[in-house]
């Protein structure tokens, strides 16, 4: 029986105050099992990215509870949340967010440095080789194509072998062919590690590659179906 790794109960989140207040999440309940691949599907503005930010501890809900890997995120301060993410949660974003003054190797080694891993550079080198970039380790982000930058971002996110990987529109800045190859790689890395993968997307074809599709509209979950 699969154990629950993410458990969200009654999540509410809003932006603005009083007359300018906009409700982003309107009472989200979501449970995700260890090792699942889940697509959060919906149009822009449906609340997908806000939900991911709360589930990953990057944002706090206004109401409700979030338990991740057995930890009550609502009871943790910012430093504790950062420590909870370290090594447990990997995040891949649409805009890559690589450090421009660091090489590909140095970017991937950052999580190891934060964890105080002695052989971080060696492990980072192996991770880059695993995503097909063994010959690009000394290149800076500006010297890499969009697809190569996203491969570096995936290597950085998955290098510490996190239990959970969040991918927010990971192919949004890529052409169709490159995007498909990136998703192949992401699913391959997830399969190798057995991590839980949540993919935030507005692309129904991409969502169908996941084992489960959770569809959102206007801050609410409107369907939650297994993908046979």
Q: Could you describe the largest sheet, including whether it forms a barrel? A: 6 strands, mixed
Structural class: alpha/beta
Number of helices: 7
What is the tally of beta strands? 10
**Separation of the first and last Cα atoms:** 18 Å
Uncertain stretches: none
Rounded mean pLDDT score: 92
H/E series: EEEHEEHEHHHEHEHEE
Give the overall form: globular
Order of strands across the biggest sheet? 6-7-8-3-9-10
β-sheet strand percentage: 25-35%
Helix content: 25-40%
Cα gyration radius (Å): 17 Å
Describe the protein.
Helix 3 packs across helix 4 (120-130), helix 3 runs parallel beside helix 5 and helix 5 (146-158) packs parallel to helix 6. The chain has helices at residues 48-55, 78-85, 104-115, 120-130, 146-158, 176-193, 204-207; strands at 4-15, 22-33, 37-41, 63-68, 71-72, 89-93, 164-168, 196-201, 212-217, 220-226. The protein contains seven helices and ten strands. It has 228 residues and is α/β, with parallel strands linked by helices. The strands form two sheets. A six-stranded mixed sheet has the order 6-7-8-3-9-10. The radius of gyration is 17 Å and the shape is globular.
């Amino acid at each position: 029986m699969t154990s629950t790794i993410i458990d969200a109960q009654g999540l509410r989140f809003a932006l603005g105050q009083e007359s300018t207040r906009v409700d982003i999440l309107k009472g989200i309940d979501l449970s995700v099992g260890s090792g699942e691949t889940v697509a959060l599907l919906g149009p822009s503005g449906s609340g997908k990215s806000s939900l991911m930010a709360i589930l990953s501890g990057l944002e706090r809900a206004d109401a409700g509870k979030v338990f991740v890997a057995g930890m009550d995120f609502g009871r943790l301060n910012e430093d504790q949340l950062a420590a909870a993410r370290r090594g447990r949660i990997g995040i891949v974003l649409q805009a890559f967010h690589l450090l421009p003054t660091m090489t590909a190797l140095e970017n991937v080694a950052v999580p190891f440095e934060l964890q105080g891993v002695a052989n971080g550079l060696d492990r980072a080198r192996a991770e880059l080789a695993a995503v097909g970039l063994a010959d690009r380790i000394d290149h800076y982000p500006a010297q890499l194509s969009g697809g190569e930058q996203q491969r570096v971002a995936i290597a950085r996110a998955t290098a510490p072998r996190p239990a959970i990987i969040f991918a927010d529109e990971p192919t949004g800045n890529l052409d169709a062919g490159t995007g498909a190859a990136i998703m192949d790689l992401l699913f391959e890395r997830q399969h190798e590690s057995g991590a839980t993968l949540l993919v935030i997307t507005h692309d129904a074809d991409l969502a169908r590659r996941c084992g489960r599709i959770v569809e959102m509209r206007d801050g609410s979950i409107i369907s939650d179906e297994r993908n046979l």
